[in-house]
Batch of 4 targets.
Target 1
Amino acid sequence: LRAQSARFILSRDADQSNRDTGGKKMPGANEWERRLNERLIAGDPIAPVELVEQLLDTIVLELKARFPREPDEDFHTDATIEAFAAYIKNPQQFDPELRSLKGFLVMAADGDFRNMLAKRRTLRVHETSVENVEVFEEARNMHTESQNSANQPEPLDELISREGSVEYDQFLNKNFPDSLDRQMADMILGNERSTEQFAKILGIEDRPSDVQQRVVKQHKDRIKKRLMRLRKQDHESE
Amino acid sequence: MSLNKQSSAIARFVLQTHEDAFFVGHSLHTFAQARNYSDAQLAAFLGCNIDSLSRAAMCRCPSYSDDSYDDHVRRIATLAGCDSSRLDQVLREAHGIAALRGIGTHFDNATLLAARDRECETKDGAQREEDKQDRE
């Protein structure tokens, strides 16, 4: 149901975007895309092969360009595959008059990618270690207050939920000019908990483990404080 | 199933079809598992090369109750370069297995009967059509 409503929103957005262009029609699907869509609707058993062989790799690359910071390359591929499988099973969801099939699949894969990120984030929050409880409890409380008062997520939370997006990168670049800090902030926001990973970023992986833990903790505390300050500023500016 | 000469994304898609009864890949996987066949053995059974299995896997699984079933099987076989009667056998047997296991498939209930019908290996399209009418 959620996937269906997401696709409805995509189609509605496309409709809206047509209206936003003053009724000027956006370029729709090309002849090949239209025919392939018709064949899928008609239940042509070999049409999925043609679709996958022609467009899967292209859409994966598009998604990688949109979310260049996602380290797990399978994530882009899986989101694209999910979008393709959903379209193959329900080709009626694509309207060739509104947009190109490629554009539609990019949008669908983008939506699935964001959903997967959100799921991963939720899982990670549940797995949050005791070390992070304080920071995340505080964040959660502030988030809850904000939701109670405005019934809307804070802009910063919204932004963080778009991990890997261009906006997310801009946020990190702006607030963490130092590349080490930026990488660490990215890892903290992604709920990375492995001291080993942070130690690698800091270039101290060869040091004794107690030293690694101490140094990593110092850096993490500093970054977390800055993140909390940003969240607080964001909250106050609401 | 062999994933040679393919991008990693397509290879991943093919793997995904093993879990999704909408695609022929699910039937190929189920059949191969049941018979303990390797990719090479499955390809040999179907009379095609290993790489062709991936193309067949990405096809939509034909519905047995559909009038176009035979035509669809033939088209998939042509695409993958395999023997259509063997592919038909694989589809019937795999969906019969899935039905016995209580797994929903893209096939229909008639498949269970079809799976029990071991004679299907030697039947041609006309005989199968007669069977189908009898069952209906």
Target 2
Amino acid sequence: MNPIPSMTRLYAKIIRLYPRSFREEFGEEMQVAFRESAAEAHAMGVLPLALVCLREIVHFPASLFQEFRYEFEREEMNMATNENLESQLKADESTLYWDALAGVLPFALFGIASMIGKLRIPFLGIYADLVFYVIVLLGLLIGLIKGVPRWTYSYLGWSLVFAFWSSNMGTPGLKIFGFQINYWTWQIWTPFLAAIGIALLWTRSLHPIRQLVRGIWQDWILVSFTIYTLFASFLLGYDENRHPYLFLFMIASMIILSTSAWFFLLSIDTRKQALSLLLGFVLAFAVSYICDATWDWHAYYGYPKPPAEAAYVSVLRYVAFLVFYGGILFLPSLLDGMRRGSATGE
Amino acid sequence: MKNQPTTPLTEATFFILLSLSPAPKHGYAIMKEVKVLSKGRVIFSTGTLYGALRRLLEQGWIKRVSDPEPNPTDRERKAYTLTEKGRKIANAEIERLRSLVATAEQHTSESTS
């Protein structure tokens, strides 16, 4: 029995692990070279054939690493030279209303999931949260496979926020597919890592990760947008408070945050994008503040009423919060502005 | 991808260029030739060979041509040949090695006499 055809088929499967560009350029030739090399060794005996196979196996990890590293370095060079295309790319993206809608969807869904969580039905809120998590992971997966359009950063942010937020979530008595989960720790991260792993396997390359990094490198405001999802989760969460009065504020916050994300994703100009985030952040924060000021949550929780506070102290606190969190939100954008300024000598 | 200095070359690169200097060759022929030229010191696997060929192609030291050898399959097989730049670099490396050997020989003959 001639083992060479089956060995070549196996070899063809193994070289699919190489980066796509390498595989497309040399994969066929490599198979031919391997087949010829194995056939010639086989004609000399089993031991020479085993040596050929052994050499391929031993060299494979280093060769694989080398090609991925080379690919990454090449991408980095392209990243630097392709920055001039950025405005063109942005202009193309700005027309994609559907893409903007895709990016807004998690903001709206998280708001809805939060509201469902306020209903006094056991586990309904947790199921709503988990459905939300599944949706954002699917969005992340699709975004990674589709070459990381800008809306992907919304899904990335929301899935990171949700996983981080839920990594110490207690769900006593909760059963999913017959499995009882009383407490979530690292398990919540496994679907996130699985989504990334599937994207890499699907594309059979590191392309999605590279695109993700490249997108951020070309436009650091995407980091601000990703951080924005974290703040949005705070501003939409409304803690453990379950009074129906809060629904009005939750709906208002959801509309404000979703609208600002919509304008962010549609904007071409970085300043307009920053303005969208800033307005959304300031307004949603104001809504949250008004809610706190008009709703007696001390009485709701049975806490003693605090001493009255001067209006100017409240305003100062609001401004201080805005400056502090706004600073965190826009730090990447400011650094990007400085980077570009120094690059162009402005 | 850093700008690599042209010489000294790695042993693998040098033997690939040397194997291509008389005539174009396809991948497996290069593997065999390098093994012979290096007296078995440099033995490529397919992955390491094509990784090296990729870099040499991108540096413009070699280029693809139609395979001059008869092909048992229907598919057109690709072969590689030195470019002018690649030939100059191979020659420069040979000169460099020659000069090193000459210096070493002179030095050893002086110290023994």
Target 3
Amino acid sequence: MAERLCQEVAQFLADRVDDQTARGLARARIAVSLAEGLDGEVGGPRDRATAAEGPGRLSALLDHGLPQSERDAVVAALAHDAMRRAEASSAAAFLDGINNACPPLPAGLMARAVDTFEYRASPKQVPTVCLGQWSRSWLPRWGLRPSLAALVLVAVLTPVVLSLIWDERNASVRDGGPIARSLAPLPGKGEETSPDRSIGKPAARSCGPTVKAAQDDQLAGGTHKAETDATEPVGGEMRKAEERGAAHSLDASADDPCRTQSSSEDGRAPARPPAGARN
Amino acid sequence: MCPQSVGGNMWSGFPSVRTGAHQGTTGRAKAWPATVPLAEVRPLPPADSQSELSLVSAVVAGDAAAAAHFMECASQPLWSAVTRLEGGGAEGEAAFLHVVASLKADGYGRLKAFDGRARLSTYLALVARDILSERLARRFSEAPDEAWSRFARFFEPDIRRRVSRRFPRDTARSTQDDAYQEICVKLIEDNYRRIRAYGGRGSFIGYVLTTVDRLLIDLVRCDSPRRRLPAAVARLSVLDQAVYAATAWEGCPAEVERLVARLRGRFERDPDPAEIGRALARLAGVVRPELPAQRAESVSLETMVEEGGGLAIADPAPTPEDHLLLAEEERHRAALVAAVRAAAADLPAAERLYLQTVFAACDPPSARDIAKLMGCPVEEVYRLKQRTQRWMKKVAADVGKQLRLPRLRI
């Protein structure tokens, strides 16, 4: 019996494939015994983190991409860990298997994959992306839309209504009512008011420095227009708009409760250098 | 043939020799790999690995255009991997999107581990396999009954491959199917006790396949002693033994014509009918009328009930002589295992891994396959073979001394 055992070992190592069933089974048995002996006292499964294995190193091993020293380390790990060895052999067979298979990608799956995979920035980086997401998340709730429309309507109509009320009060003042609640000096008589008032258009007014500066720029633009009119090929519409803006600015400055004393005294724009000259 | 494949397999890499210039979001041109793989070339050319690495780096850095291009390149290979493991259809698509989402998770954490030393296609295939196996393990811990069908689909190719390697190549297909079914039964029994014993350490795939290997070893051990040649037959010629094995173990009728067909190709020269007839005659003189006739008889349980259970069913238990032989064989096997274990303690890792790879199959794999698994050139495998043969001869000599053999025939 023992002699036969040694013969079987010798035959196995001789790499001679024997098709006879009895010999084949003997080979299977001896292979099992030798494999069991070679497994020996090996350690149990190791944590992937400590073994630094994972797909990265395994794929590098299978692609022959590891340097010698690192390959030796991986080989040692495989030799002493049956689980890792089983996984490696399975991975090699898996790669061989899919080499020969190429099922067609279902229609639409690619687009879904791109949508799933595409980069989306964090809120700190691009807040508008998240704002868009937020908008998409709540806009489909159709019940909110009437409320939104009502809110917008109120926001738009409120200045109009207020200006109408304001005009009504001004009208009462012009009619002789002694109402003077403004801290600013009241405008002069009716000949100084803008003819636009009769149409009901409210003139935006502000005492803020920004708006005043803008008004100054408009005034300067109006002055500058006269200088550049003959030399610069300004478009007709643009020129008309500038003219309208200048005229309106002059009217507004005349009617402006925040206007400076000097400008209100003579009813003309203060003498300022052209914008180009200021720069 | 895959549409992307041109003269090679798809997994030779969507990294390619050609590189495509891709216009990034910032308008600068980038040299990213095109989607056309070419013939398998190992090791990976540095240019390709660099272009793959630059693409992955761009994706990780948050370049949306790079991400889109990456997905264009990776979709087909990933789909192949997913369908191999999970099948197609809706489940396959869900698994595919799960893999894609997992690649993106944690700030493309899984892609950050790619260092360009492997082909990106290889890396992605193994990552996809890892992701899906983790999902499978999670499902098994939650609802094993529902997860079993997925488990079977995921692991069936691996288990069948192991079965076919452990048994001789001429083993009947039905025998291999039986072995596969038996392993599945072992995995299912006790409410999937063996699978559920996975504690999360190491990879789930490695754990399951190691369990399967252990079960297979038990199967081979149980099956082989029953297939032992009787001493009287073992003393006969090789042809006589083959005729005995064909009739007693493989169920071939003891007819000359059938045996001629059965044994065709097993010898250097096919035996003629007269030789087989003489072998049958010799076997008839040394063994009792053979088992095939007894095994072929099928007995209906209904018939047994109707006739009062008068039919005798052969007892499959070994005879007292078989018991003695089994005990002796087990003693020798244990001696061999102990000798190998002791000698292997000082065996270099590469030689040890080589022998483990060789003995993982009944018929040794090719040097090329071993080289692939060990990540070394084929020449290195031949050197390992020479060294390990010397080592195995020494082990066999030690076993011979231990068992007091008169001489060794190695």
Target 4
Amino acid sequence: VNSYRFLLNVYPPGVRRAELLDTLTAGGRTRPTSREVANLLRFGMRARLGRPASRGIVVIAILFTFATAFAMAAVTERVGWQAVPAFPAGARLAAIEETVYPGSPHVAQRYISGGGLYDDNGTPDHWDVLVGGHNEDYTYASLNLLAGENSFLPGDDQRWISAAQKRIADAGWKVRWAGDYGGNPGDGVRAFATRGDVSLEIDTATNMVGTPAGAFGVTTTLRRVPPLWLSLLAWAGALVGAPIGWLLTGWASRRTEHGRPGVRRALRIMVSVALAGVAPQSIGGLQDLAAETSRIDPPDRPFWAATLAGGWSITQCAMLLSLVCLLIAARSPRRPEAFVTVQPESQP
Amino acid sequence: LDGSQLLDEVALLSAGRARTQAGTLFAIRDRLGAPGLVTLDRDEIVDGHIGRFYRLTPEGGIVLNAATPLRSGSTVKGARRVLRGQNA
């Protein structure tokens, strides 16, 4: 019976739990079957939303569930990044440089764009980010290695990068992609490789201003790839965040379902606008997290980058509207539970 | 009928083809209760536990009468039998 009682916590508090317990245990049963568990989970979660005849509330709850799952996944992964190893340094970095640019000319410059975990094409402070979001070029920070004099090397870039590809492959890098890029004459060739949780991108170009005759420009960029454990941690965060969205939607829905028609209409409009803003970003962000987890194509930016950059103003608006809806729900008077008292026979 | 009896009755009326679970039954009750098609009738001790009994409201009876022709033959017969019993 205790297992039934525990399972019935999926239903909102109220007399329904006791009624269900009586019905479920009427035949002397003490443990739920797997079919009963599935049935009670399904309808218990639905009962949390109130408005039993409405399908719209289920759609709203699903979309808010995506939103809170996405938000919690983003927060979890951001916190987890603090434990990700720093860029290769010292002898490890020297070995990479020697692989890419063997012998002379030596690496002329090393610099980390962004300075920390992320590169925001500038260094806005927390307040700037809170108000205006990140720049649209928000990516993971990169360690850039420029070779030779002003990053130019003598010779033919096609031949050089073919040899570089062989060198990095011999050093244990997995070359994932190589070929022309950019589409303009002189844009050059690119090779992209990964080893462990670091990606390596080598770009050449012959159309850079000041390129000496018979030479080409080359830039090597190292980026940290989110480790698999970090992506899995983000999914764990999503699993924690998902029920929060469902339960909050259910709580607000039950509190407002018998509200005044004008209030309910206003809530419907605010919820629709909020969801139109955040639902696509949340679903798209979780798709990006899935791609990140697959490790097929290592990303150059976090899966929440679009939300914190171009989508930030929309997200702010949606968060504000959601907060107003929750406040209205909190201020709505509690209604007595349905079916609690015996109704008098109505006269035909 | 209380909840557990109702589940048995559904299985009986459908000749064992429909096996309704308790969660489904209460979801249906909630859906019918929201527009006032069913209402709580009484609480009664049944086999040592409190049985909660619901009844169709007059509006619920009208809706059920209108809906039964849409269902398959055996279910209609079963539902009509229940309605006849209720109106007796």
